[in-house]
Design goal:
heterodimer, A: mainly beta, five-stranded mixed barrel, three-stranded antiparallel beta sheet, 10 strands, B: alpha/beta, globular
Chain lengths: ~140, ~375
């Protein structure tokens, strides 16, 4: 679980797994970790998450949609540590991030939460996808 | 249109409730029949005089309606289930109002009934990747909104918890509430935390219960001998779904849009509202929605609560029933329980919870999706 997680400087991230266990994975590139979005040729919007059903802004079908990498960096808008969950090990911390490419996405905080970290307004870096392919974020600067 | 919500006026003529409570062995049929019989008695109507029925329910399973209503006498009336997540009851009410306002029915009933069964969310099988939906349940979603609200407005944890203190005090006066105990700020803030700054008493209890609301036309009121002085006019019925808001919080934006449409339809402004019930499943929600409805300037709702402006007897009574925080949120019944509260307030029959001079009220629910349903009700002039 993120609450007693791993040293981020080892390039690994650990998040709660759906089966209740922990999984440690290698960190992929930030762009891929920030997730993919879908760009619409008809209206020009780029939205998250990636899908091929149709454009949520203009309704164009899949012939106008193509997948794009979203920014792996952004600004933290909010966070919440979860202390109790019916199916998952706790605590873990969820963050809401405005990516530099414009999309609002949520992920898990890849570091132990501590007073002042995370905090609203800080710059964050997508660090990879962990168990269940959840997007994870950490401070966008060397930790220590 | 000659009435505000359709070709003709629609009036609430009867309301009934089964108290909201923790999950028990009581069958849903008992819950629903109790509320429906009470609403019939309140209206002075008999079941054969009801032309259509809408069952607001999200958790009971397929086709619960006739299995319950046949025990009022199998009159053959049309019965439909309405599922719209937390807004199921509000949406059932909207269908009943439209049946009457359109002229297709003279008397229609909306009945909300649910027991806290596990729900299967369609979004989980939509095929759209939602990588962290499992870690972001509603509790976490609103804990995130609370943190960003605090950062944006400077509101404190104590001010936000004040919503729960107010609503638990109201719930203590409501015999139909699941939580009927007044709580101090210290009790509301007592550990443990469940998510973010939210404590258990700042989160709605999900239990069971039922609520029924009967809607009738002017013709039916005259023909069936309904006490016209106790009828309450439906002056707005609006429902909207989420759009793209460029990263603005969708709950607040959707409420603002739907609320503005309802106030326009009712030809009233926010300052005209005397009693308001909002979807306060979490303390932060009452602040977001009262601001979105124009009851307080942006970022000011926490101060309004602290100054007592939303108390019974204050500027506008918000969640006089106890709200979802204290009255509870059995899902299907919730929106109809709000209507029952506002109807009693507008009739002057709310007893210890009576807000003096209540003439105009608004009820608001949001549901997963997201959807939003808002109605405005008015005392007969």
């Amino acid at each position: 679980m993120t609450g007693n997680a791993h040293p981020a400087d080892r390039g690994q991230t650990r998040v709660p797994a759906s089966d209740g266990g922990d999984t440690t994975v290698e960190r992929p590139s930030p762009a891929a970790a920030g997730g993919q979005g879908v760009h619409c040729r008809a209206c020009g919007s780029t939205l998250w998450p990636a899908q091929q059903y149709g454009c949520e802004r203009c309704g164009a079908d899949s012939t106008d949609l193509h997948l794009v990498d979203l920014a792996g960096t952004g600004r933290l808008l909010s966070f919440a540590t979860v202390y109790s969950h019916p199916d998952l090990p706790t605590p873990y911390t969820v963050v809401e991030v405005a990516l530099d490419s414009g999309q609002l996405i949520r992920g898990v905080w890849a570091e132990p939460a501590s007073p002042g970290h995370p905090a609203v307004g800080i710059r964050v870096l997508a660090t990879g996808t962990g168990a269940g392919d959840r997007t994870a974020f950490r401070l966008d600067e060397p930790l220590r | 249109m000659s009435g505000p919500v359709g070709a003709r006026d629609a009036w609430v003529v009867g309301v009934g409730l089964h108290p909201y409570q923790r999950a028990s062995a009581t069958p849903y049929v008992t819950l629903g029949l109790t509320a429906t019989r009470q609403a019939l008695q309140d209206a002075g109507l008999r079941w054969p005089q009801v032309d259509s029925a809408y069952i607001g329910t999200a958790l009971l399973g397929v086709a619960p309606g006739r299995e319950m209503l046949r025990f009022l006498g199998a009159t053959g009336l049309p019965i439909s289930q309405v599922e719209n997540a937390s807004a199921s009851g509000s949406t059932a009410f909207r269908h009943a109002v439209q049946d009457v306002a359109s002229g297709s029915c003279e008397v229609s009933v909306a009945i909300g009934v649910d027991k806290p069964e596990p729900a299967r969310l369609a979004a989980r099988s939509s095929g759209v990747p939602a990588l962290i939906d499992d870690v972001v349940n509603p509790l976490t979603h609103f804990a995130l909104l609370m943190q960003s609200y605090m950062a944006q407005t400077g509101a404190t944890v104590e001010q936000i918890a004040g919503v729960a203190v107010k609503n638990h005090a109201n719930g203590a006066l409501n015999p139909n509430a699941q939580r009927q105990k007044a709580r101090t700020l210290q009790e509301v803030l007592a550990p443990p935390l469940v998510a973010g700054h939210l404590t258990r008493l700042q989160c709605t209890p999900i239990g069971e219960g039922a609520a029924a609301v009967i809607v009738a036309s002017d013709d039916a009121i005259g023909r069936l001998g309904v006490d016209v002085r106790r009828t309450v006019r439906v002056v707005a019925s609006q429902s909207r779904s989420e759009m793209l808001y460029d990263n603005e919080n969708f709950d607040a934006a959707l409420t603002r849009t739907t609320g503005a449409a309802a106030l326009e339809q009712a030809s009233v402004g926010p300052h005209d509202l005397d009693v308001v019930e909002v979807h306060d499943a979490f303390t932060i929600e009452e602040l977001l929605y009262t601001e979105a409805l124009g009851l307080a300037p942006a970022g000011e709702a926490a101060h309004a609560v602290q100054r007592g402006e939303f108390d019974i007897g204050g500027r506008v009574a918000v969640s006089a029933s106890g709200g979802l925080l204290a009255m509870g949120h059995p899902t299907g019944p919730t929106g109809l329980g709000q209507v029952a509260e506002v109807v009693r307030q507008l009739r002057g029959e709310a007893g210890a919870r009576q807000h003096p001079g209540a003439a105009t009220g608004l009820v608001h629910m949001v549901g997963l999706g997201a959807v939003c349903v808002v109605h405005v009700l008015q005392r007969r002039q």
